[in-house]
Give the backbone structure.
Amino acid sequence: MQNAEISQRRDADEKIRQNRVRELLRYDWVIMTGTVNDVTKVVPRLPRNIGSHSVYTDGVAEVTYKLLEITQLSSKISCYKYKAEDVIQHSIKKIVLVFYHW
């Protein structure tokens, strides 16, 4: 696995990684690191263009993510603001993701 990437495969061996993505995005603030300036290299299903949507489905949850804003905090740190909507549980929340790349 390169760049701490979490695979999108759905077989049984990858289920733990998919659950980690779902659990991670339950927090209001998340800090991630990677080797390139692209948050989708760490969590492939997150949108990287403002206003775009993506859907994460694993059989337990179906969550839609919308990227609301990107703020460049420094040459190596970006702050992404997402709106996450859980279709099954009918909940909506904002997630702030601080991404550091080296």
